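User: Let's play a game. I give you a shape written as tokens, and you guess the letters that built it. Ready? Here's round one.
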């Protein structure tokens, strides 16, 4: 039943938001999963801080999970992940800290475990796209009222994997309110963490 599944997904996601040490509120207008194809989508996601101010949002996110490859390959495999119109509102506060960090609950300091593995979980995404993203930046640290909006953020990758041996080819582009445009074509590797690529810039001004 789609309604029941939607209610369960909303409850689970909201619960994970709190359990993972986050302060604030997460709101979902729709969360549905197809139990036969393991495809799921979440629509109109809003994340608010403790003061009720929206700091992040997503219009729509779709993921097609591949259970067979995940089960037999000991990995999280997705045929497709698509994120539409994500937005983040970040502020560099007067104490030079990032406003988004206020979403994290303080944790007790623990001694590092020398035997703990630092490797990333194995994630495979055949096709990843992020479309029409937006980032709002405000600087209160310098006290000059600087702010910038980056919009039309688009990211795409094919055959993405966190496997240390994988070289992930990606493309990213964005533009600012004053008309500056940027495009990056390159690759990311996770062990060691590194990236290479070419940046193309248009209409950037130094003033």
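Assistant: Ready! My guess for every position:
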């Amino acid at each position: 039943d789609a309604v029941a599944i939607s209610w369960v997904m909303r409850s689970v996601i909201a619960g994970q938001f709190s359990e993972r040490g986050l302060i604030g509120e997460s709101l979902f207008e729709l969360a549905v999963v197809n139990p036969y194809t393991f495809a799921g989508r979440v629509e109109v996601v809003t994340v608010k801080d403790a003061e009720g101010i929206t700091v992040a949002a997503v219009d729509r996110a779709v993921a097609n999970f591949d259970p067979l490859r995940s089960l037999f390959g000991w990995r999280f495999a997705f045929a497709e992940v698509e994120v539409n119109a994500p937005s983040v509102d970040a502020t560099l506060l007067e104490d030079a800290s990032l406003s988004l960090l206020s979403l994290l609950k303080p944790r007790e300091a623990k001694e590092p475990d020398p035997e703990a593995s630092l490797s990333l979980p194995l994630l495979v995404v055949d096709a990843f796209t992020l479309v029409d993203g937006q980032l709002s930046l405000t600087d209160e640290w310098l006290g000059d009222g600087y702010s910038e909006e980056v919009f039309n953020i688009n990211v795409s990758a094919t055959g993405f994997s966190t496997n240390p041996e994988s070289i992930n080819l990606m493309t990213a582009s964005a533009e600012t309110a004053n008309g500056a445009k940027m495009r990056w074509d390159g690759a990311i590797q996770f062990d060691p963490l590194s990236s290479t690529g070419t940046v193309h810039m248009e209409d950037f001004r130094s003033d």
